[in-house]
Design brief:
618 residues; alpha+beta; Maltose phosphorylase, domain 3; 8-stranded antiparallel β-sheet
């Protein structure tokens, strides 16, 4: 068996602090914390004896709701989660089948949901140590082996087979039996071979619109980034090699400046008006967390931060009562787009609206996992010591060599550039504290001494009492090249965009028996401030960073914790039906330069991110 570099902690060991805890509290008070009360697909699901959806939506929701409830130590949320787990365990069939369908329906049932619910049960065990879970997962996995021996994997299960390895290997570590390895290999054999797929195809954006395929589906790709890392557990292969190759090939043709990739639903090229699905962000974050734990490469932490601090907050409103199905890099409006003007390849014209379930409800259930699992990935433990994977605020309690250790990260990162890591022990103990220094930093200092970037900075000593490790990161403002002759402004993990002020109209209605009612109704956002800007200087020393405090919402649209003051110029740039053209007609100024405050991409609903650099006559 492959020895992973780091082991994620559980909700019994870790707590979010500072703005990160506030972010989880907002999630609990928003859509995530109310889906079982307001959304029929959760409230009346077949998983708990109802007649609504009985496939992925309840497992998706629980995958985030469970760690959210325990990270916040919220007994009311925990009791609601337990109700679902109790019902699922009680309904498991004598032969181990765990999904809510009749026996005659099994052959046509996509067992992706079985993989997912078993992942959820393992997560619930980590939170509660519920003694029922191990036997339930054991029976479900053994039945799954019998099932797929007769009914070959198809559809979503075929492209997500590796997700089943997560509960399977958890089970194997607890009670190893030979048939479990048979199941692992059978899953790999029957599932899609992503290694061969990425050898055969370049996944450049095809010349036709309205295409759909499982192989380059954006959510499948986000999940599959970790497929070989998971298999490395038994093969011993490099857990990073394929993920790097896959990510590189995707980004060659389908990149976003945030480090994510377009997909609406499938890879969609590199236009700033193409979207990327919310589910793909949540799943990419989880893949990077798995890759970071398995192989320990700094790269995966860098990408995780970019997803968490840019893509995820941008795909929800700041109060997390609504979300988008797809987000656009240059997004000047969020209202229904007429069919003839839809820029997306296989999504409807409402996909970029904020609402309860715009376009399709999978993201309504699945976005819930992103922030709780990110919190759980902030600190990990390994054979040699403890890893601080990100400087976002959190704390953890672990034991090593008989000593009780508390690690606390005190910071406002990424809105500030420094942190203090406090280590407290109840007796002397020797271990290595490994601090991830991001590869996108230009300089770094730990305990007042310079260190390299893109490495794990190791502090190896005997720890006693309370020690404080200062970390300071240096970030340059950069204008990076983007397709179509555009530039984008980044600083550290944050992408900055021109915020477009919006007039917001609430749309309350019912559709297919589902009520949209404020605050979980659809929102129509139309621009009420200029958006047709270009950069007017490439001299980044002329851009000014402006800090302010973190308010009620960490990713506030109206009052973000950090801005960049810049000179921008308006340019001729056409739009139709609320969608701007991919690039402006001309790169010329329509007037004198004006002062504009760009703000973090994650602190915007409407925005312009990729814009040309316009030469201003002297």
């Amino acid at each position: 068996m492959y020895q992973t570099k780091w082991r994620p902690l559980t909700t019994r060991q870790l707590r979010p602090e500072g703005w990160l805890r506030r972010q989880l509290e907002i999630q609990a008070k928003g859509l995530s914390g109310h889906l079982d009360l307001i959304w029929p697909d959760i409230r009346e699901s077949r998983w708990i004896g109802g007649d609504r959806e009985g496939w992925e939506r309840v497992p998706y929701w629980l995958d985030g709701f469970i760690p959210l409830a325990w990270l916040l130590e919220d007994e009311a949320l925990q009791e609601r989660a337990k109700r679902y787990i109790d019902a699922i365990l009680a309904a498991q069939k004598p032969d181990g089948w765990i999904c809510p369908c009749e026996e005659e329906e099994r052959a046509g049932y996509d067992v992706w949901a079985a993989f997912l619910i078993c992942k959820v049960l393992v997560l619930y065990y980590d939170c509660t140590l519920d003694e029922r879970i191990e036997e339930a997962v054991y029976r479900a996995m053994k039945q799954l082996l019998r099932h797929i021996s007769d009914h070959t994997l198809f559809n979503w299960a075929a492209t997500r087979w590796y997700e089943c390895l997560i509960p399977l290997f958890w089970l194997y570590e607890r009670r190893p039996e030979a048939w479990m390895m048979d199941l692992a290999h059978l899953l790999e054999i029957e599932g899609v071979d992503f290694e061969k797929a990425y050898e055969a195809f370049d996944f450049a954006h095809p010349p036709v619109k309205k295409y759909w395929t499982q192989i380059n589906h954006v959510v499948n790709a986000a999940m599959a980034l970790k497929c070989r890392a998971l298999m490395s557990y038994i093969t011993g292969e490099d857990p990073n090699e394929f993920a790097k190759k896959m990510y590189g090939k995707i980004m060659k043709y389908n990149s976003m400046v945030t480090g994510h990739f377009t997909g609406d639903e499938c890879f969609s090229g590199d236009s700033p008006i193409q979207g990327s699905e919310c589910c793909s962000v949540a799943e990419a974050m989880y893949s990077f967390e798995v890759l970071l734990a398995m192989g320990g490469e700094v790269l995966w932490g860098d990408l995780l931060e970019k997803e968490a601090f840019n893509m995820m907050p941008a795909t929800t409103t700041e109060d997390m009562w609504t979300h988008q199905y797809v987000q656009m890099t240059n997004q000047i409006c969020a209202k229904r787009i007429p069919e003839e003007s839809v820029p997306f390849n296989s999504n409807s014209g409402e996909s970029h609206m904020f609402g309860l379930e715009p376009n399709f409800g999978c993201c309504t259930a699945n976005f819930n996992q992103a922030w709780p699992k990110f919190a759980l990935a902030t600190i990990m433990e390994g054979e040699e010591g403890i890893a601080v994977n990100t400087l976002a605020p959190s704390s953890a309690r672990v034991e090593r060599d008989g000593a009780k250790i508390r690690i606390c990260i005190r910071s406002e990162y990424p809105f500030r550039d420094d942190a203090v890591i406090e280590v407290e022990t109840d007796r002397p103990v020797t271990f290595t504290l490994a601090v991830r220094i991001p590869g996108f930093a230009q300089s770094a200092r730990v305990e007042g001494r310079d260190t390299a970037c893109g490495i794990w900075h190791e502090v190896n000593r005997e720890w006693t009492g309370i020690s404080r490790i200062s970390v300071e990161l240096g970030f340059d403002i950069k204008l990076v090249d983007r397709p179509y002759g555009a530039k984008a402004l980044i600083r550290g993990p944050l992408v900055f965009a021109v915020p477009v002020k919006a007039a917001v109209r609430e749309l309350e209605y019912s559709k297919d028996g589902v009520e949209r009612k404020a605050p979980w109704c659809d929102l129509e956002m139309t621009p009420v401030s200029p958006w047709n800007y270009g950069f007017c200087t490439g001299e980044t020393e002329k851009y000014e960073v402006v800090h302010s405090g973190i308010g009620e919402y960490p990713f506030a649209v109206s009052d973000p914790p950090v801005k960049i003051k810049a000179k921008m110029v308006r340019i001729p740039w056409k739009e139709k039906d609320g969608v701007c053209e991919i690039e402006p007609d001309e790169r010329k100024a329509l007037g004198e330069p004006e002062t504009v405050f760009l703000q973090p991409y994650g602190c915007t609903n409407l925005r312009m991110t990729e814009m040309p650099l316009v030469k201003i006559p002297v």
